[in-house]
Please model this.
Amino acid sequence: QKLPFTTRSFTPIALLALDPFFLWVWSDSNIKTLDDFLKEARQRSITVGGTGSKQEDEILFKLIELRANTKPFNYVPFRGGGEVCTALAGKQVEATVNNPSECVQF
Model:
């Protein structure tokens, strides 16, 4: 569908908020740093969770694959950030990228 506007129809005038993402792993994991994570991901496919296919977290993992030359991640989509963190806490996935407010309770 042709929209009556383009991205050039708007001008950003202020940055009002940031949406930080953390890389989360199990607390008892041997992975303690980003370097540890990348080293492990270069050796094997890590099962990661996210908020759904083609969402920002899946895109971030794809960027990590491409830029850091890792094995492909096994991406498991969930219905939301809280569900992803629950899956991480239950060891259904090994890692996620998520907002602090969604995982801090775990």
